Structures are given as C-alpha cells and as structure tokens.
Amino acid sequence: MEYRNKMVLAPMVRAGTLPFRLLAAEYGADITYGEEIIDHKFVNCQRVINESLGTTDFVERGTDSVVFRTCPQERDKVVFQIGTSDAVRALKAAELVCNDIAAIDINMGCPKAFSVSGGMGSALLSKPELIHDILTTLRRNLNTPVTCKIRLLNTRQDTVELARRIEKCGVPALAVHGRKVKDRPRDPAKWDEIADVVSALSIPVIANGNVFEYEDFKRIKDATGLYVPFICSFIYYSNFYSIVH
Q1: What is the DSSP string of the chain?
Q2: Model's pTM, two decimal places?
Q3: Which one of 98, 110, 148, 169 is the catalytic residue?
C-alpha cells in the first residue's frame, strides 16, 4: 500500500464500520481504517461469506455477532486495526483477515483503562522490546503491510527515539497522535511535537489529532512540515477525527 499523498479515514470506535468506510471512500478517502478490534475477540471468529449482502463477515463463534465486516469494494483501501499485547496472538488474528484487507495496524496509542489494563494500547509505549516483537513477527509472517499508531511520550526526545526504533522494524508508515497519555481529548494536540518525528524519519508519518474540518489538513501539513517529499499522506477523523501525513 502506498501511504504518500493519500487521504485517510482514521480509526474510530463504534463508527468505523463498513457503511461509514464506504461513504468516506465515496467522498475521497484513499485509505480507510476500521475500528480497533481486540485480538482475544478476533481469534475466536470464523470467516463467513455473506452472499445476501456480498460481504465477508468475521463472526464470533457460538454467536451471530459480526465482529468485522468488509467487502471486495474496499479490499485495496481498508486497514484492519488490532489491539494486542502479544505477538503470537496478534499474528493469529492478522492471519484470519490478511487476505481480505489492504494493511494491518497495531494500536499502541489508546489510553483507555480497558486497553492499558490488558497491556495494550498506550501500555506498549513503555515496552519497546515488545513493540519490536509484535511488529517484526507480523512482518516476517505476512505479505500484508504492517504499521502502528503511537502517542507522544513524556519528552520530545523519547518520542523521536521510539519512532526511530519502530522505523527500524521495517514498517512502511507510522501514525502519531499529538497528545500524551495523560492528555484528554479537550487538550489541544501538539502538532509541533509531531513535526519532530516527521523530521527524524524517512517513512511517511500520519499526524493525528485536532483535525475537525477540511482546512485543517493544510494547517497540520504546514505545522508538521508535511511538504517534505517523503511525508505527505493524510488521515481524516472528524470530531474524533484526525489527520495522517
């Protein structure tokens, strides 16, 4: 998947479902993220072809609950985001869906108690060895692109150092949410600290946070230095949206 010069719909819990992703694609999104799905739940799913809808459904075993739904129309656009704390389990989840999606993304930025208590999301930010294990395990065993999303760390230097370690894992892009774990959604995103990551890496960086209207794309590009040739893909959120560069 090419991440440069793209409009991207960011992952949103309870919103990034198939109908919304298709609508975003219709309005210009080149890449669309599904909502985060926890690996524990997904590995208990079975792949089912839904002929009446023309979709591929991943249904929780023993129930009629559709955990993830996609279709051939978005095959080259949709990114499947996983919440995980274990490389083997993440790989097992990814292997179930990798032939039906365009890329896999590991959520390493969620600060919610549920994620952190399970060692997922932002809990991974303090475990660079585990980050390396998860990303390299998936990359070695999949032909599907693998990326991840992080938050800002306590210092600019810490964020840049972690981003560089992630880049060395061979990911084709990195998303950075412009808030720290202790920050709340009402706190302004620190675009200038995302700019530090942009200047330090040679892969596309996805800038996330405080993108509420179309004009914010240009504002965040200007603020983060996104006119640098190798950093120019975008991601869109809206209210909960954000931008990827």
Answers
A1: ---TT--EEPP-TTT-SHHHHHHHHHTT-SEEEPPPEEHHHHTTEEEEEETTTTEEEEEETTS--EEEEE-GGGTTTEEEEEE-S-HHHHHHHHHHHGGGSSEEEEEE----HHHHHTT-GGGGGG-HHHHHHHHHHHHHH-SS-EEEEEEE-SSHHHHHHHHHHHHTTT-S-EEEEEEETT--TTSPP-HHHHHHHHHH-SS-EEEES---STTHHHHHHHHHTTTSTT-----B-SSS-----
A2: 0.91
A3: 110
